[in-house]
Amino acid sequence: MLITLELFVMLVLANGMPVVVAKLCRGAWDWPIDGNRHWPDGRPVLGPSKTWRGLVSGALSSALFSAWVGLGFLFGLAFGLLGLLGDMASSFVKRRLGLASSARALWLDQLPEAALPMAVAVLWLPVAVWDATLVVLLFALSNIFFSPILHRLGIRKHPH
Question: What domain range includes position 10?
Fold first, then answer.
């Protein structure tokens, strides 16, 4: 049970730390991962909110927490990177659908960034598929519920 809580915290760190660091850095080091390139459809590959600063801060926070709780730095780094890769995949799909980077896509905004790292956790750690599924759903639902609150508090730019 403790490991599922730790994995949930790692998901929150990997996906939340880029938002916190962006707020603290006030635009510094916000180089877009896609280099502001466009796909053949004329739309951005990922969009301006997917930055190297966010990738580094999200993956590193997950790795440091993972090392601290005894799951290992390398596992935490892989876990965090996969969460952010899932987030980038959903951004890529949203751009192909013509949605702006601030547009809400219920479940698409939450599931890839949680399911990808949790799939690796099932393979790497003694975590049951049922427990991993529960963590993914809990993360998605908490993201849906708390994002508007964080927006009202001025922590998030957008309410989702």
Answer: 2-152
Beta bridge partners of 38: 44
The burial class, CB within 10 Å (0-12 / 13-18 / 19+), for 64 is middle
Let me know if residue 48 belongs to a domain: yes
Q: Are 116 and 136 a contacting pair, CB within 8 Å? A: no
* Cβ neighbours around 37 below 10 Å, total: 10
Nearest residue to 89 (alpha-carbon basis) of 70, 111, 106, 71: 111
pTM score of the predicted model: 0.91
In whole angstroms, what is the distance from residue 133 CA to residue 5 CA?
Answer: 13
pLDDT at position 158: 64
How many distinct structural domains can be found in the chain? 1
